[in-house]
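Dear Dr. K.,

Following up on our conversation at the group meeting, I've run the structure prediction for Amidohydrolase 2 from Penicillium cosmopolitanum. I'm pasting the input sequence below exactly as I used it, so you can double-check it against your construct before we proceed with anything downstream. Let me know if the numbering doesn't match what you have in your notebook.
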Amino acid sequence: MATQIISCHRNDSNNQAIDTHAHVFDPSLGPYASGRAYTPEDAPLEELIAFNQKLSTDSEIGTLVLVQPSPYENDCSVMMQSLRRLKDEDTCAFGIVVLDLDKTTDTELETMHYLGVRGVRLNLQADGKEVNIDKLVLALQKTSDRICHLPGWIIQLFVPGWSWDLLYQPILGLPVPVIADHLGGMLGPSKLPSSLHSSSTSQPGFESLLSLAKQSCVYVKISGLYRMSNELSSNFRDLEPIVRTFAREIPDQVIWGSDWPHTGDGKNRSKDKLKCKETFRVIDNYAIMEQLQTWMGGDVYRKMLVDNPGRLYT
Ligand SMILES: [Zn+2]
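The predicted structure tokens came back this morning:
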């Protein structure tokens, strides 16, 4: 039986799946930042397109959202070149940038908008750094002040699950929606202390995240399961209660991202390894998508792939 993986076409092109989280690493388009924590293998745009087509049951390319990865820090020129190329080829694509707002003019933001950028990523957890909530709240406010006039722009956050308790009030007051990366940082039992093994949905931050999503302040991205669970051999089955709870409680606030090309977890990184390219994880994306479909049910799965991100990315 053919399983629809990421193609959810009806009869019109508005119903394609949207991969809301993928990266391009291409040294031929521009250099990595000298202060980066690691050097990834190459992952050029052509390979991303091929991956997306392969995952689709009809080999059509869906909509892509390119997310600025940490090795480029806040130099988004590789992403801008990629977005321009996709635009020239009439492929629908968007971008989430990382910026030094003090050095970015409003005109530059408008050019980015024209190329498909729809948000700013605050990745304070990149490369395993501790999260400073006070600093993050200031960054949230400063970023939303700069982007709230731009149509459809969002803030994307990759933070540990517990931080939603502390971010609850600040996010309630923000004029722009927030995307919570990688299950909002919620961990499966394989990564939680034993006291939470039987109730991963009671982990700190979970209720706050759900509540923010129910109030349409937050979208939860179903992505990067391998970052939230150690159960590679079962395709991260210990995340089932978390994903099922999201599907049941916030069916209109979940979106999906492949997180291609599946970068590593920051362990074993050091400055003297920068000359060696860090390999990507080997992930069974087909099995994960089939599992998500089973856990969420066909209707919510479709909302996650098509309808919900379709409201965000226009
Ligand atoms: Zn990623």
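Two things stood out to me. The domain at 14-312 is CATH 3.20.20.140 (TIM Barrel). Residues 7-15 have pLDDT under 50 and may be disordered.

Best regards,
J.T.
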